[in-house]
User: Fold biotin synthase from Lunasporangiospora selenospora.
Amino acid sequence: MPSRSNRALTPASGRASVHFVRSYTVASSPTKFATIDESPRTQKQIAFGRDLSGAALNAHGELRYDWKKDEIDAIYHSPIMDLLYHGSNVHRLHFDPLAVQQCTLLSIKTGGCSEDCKYCPQSSSYSTSVKAQKLLDTDVVLSAARAAKEAGSTRFCMGAAWRDLAGRKSNFKKIVGFVKEIRAMDMEVCCTLGMLNDDQAAQLKDAGLTAYNHNLDTSREYYPKIITTRSYDERLETISKVREAGISVCSGGIIGLGETDVDRVGMLHTLSTMPQHPESVPVNALLAVEGTPLEKQEPVKVWDMVRMIATARIVMPKTMIRLSAGRVRFTQPEQALCFMAGANSIFTGDKLLTTPNNEFNSDQQMFQTLGLVPKAASFKVDLAEESHHHHSSECCGSKHA
Ligand code: SF4
Assistant:
């Protein structure tokens, strides 16, 4: 049966994209294939005698909130070269593929955390070389933000090693002040301060907070092996409060914790079936730290990063995918693969909270080598405006297939 494409996806940039605006008639395809897809590339793939990969079948670049776990699993397990290609194509539909945002993450309150995240050197449950400190002074934080801006960062993230903000009224007030000041520098501002209540979320919103980071870390099933001091549902609740306050959600995870591919897919499923896709999804590779229960974990291979990034890009096409912790282990060509797969943000600065990060100069040189350009700050709540979709009881992934 002949079929005609009704997909008319135009890239956000408005530039012409010959790949994606197509009206293509399959005149003589066998019926079996005509209903799947009609682009020349997939026809070729069929001609090579292979089934279409999960990536080829699903990389349309549409915002979808009804992903099934088996679809995400099929994307994740596509041949790497196919996954890279399709991740890259989806990336180009919605973003300038050369623009990579530089973010800076500062630990404003380090160590002594009452949570027991098994990867984290800041947990007071483990003895590591990290020393507990008080909240940094205002001038220290603001001059770090200024320096970050001068170095090309357009997003400044502040992390505090707290379970929540209970009993931290004066510190919270200070942080709200930091947010106002840094937003006034024309930077995006993000915080990660543990669990929030509605009132705190509203205050942060009023102060001009762009995004709040609260990672899922891993799948619901694997989560209890990593953290016992707060539940997956508590995480999802904080994320909902952030979203409801009108603050963009930044939420992602870490690979290399000993999880399986099923867990990775499970986490991406939870993220991509939220009522809105997170504005930002950090993909971290564990940097095993001595003294933590995960100190002996093997380093993550770049191919696993590429799979995660490309899959995240395909299922959450308009989200900023951040190549985050663990980047320091990857060579420039390996990082290039991650950008090709759809990552469009990195953290610059010599430290990521308490762990080492890539050197500033080598990052600048990488931008030059790869022809990347710094991405400007963005203050519109894009995903929120576009999503008319509403989940009821299954929002936040509480119902798992
Ligand atoms: S990851 Fe955050 S919440 Fe968990 S122990 Fe470290 S600082 Fe605390």
Observations:
- Confidence is low (pLDDT under 50) at residues 1-36, 382-401.
- The radius of gyration is 21 Å.
- The first strand starts at residue 99 and ends at 109.
- The chain has one domain: 99-391.
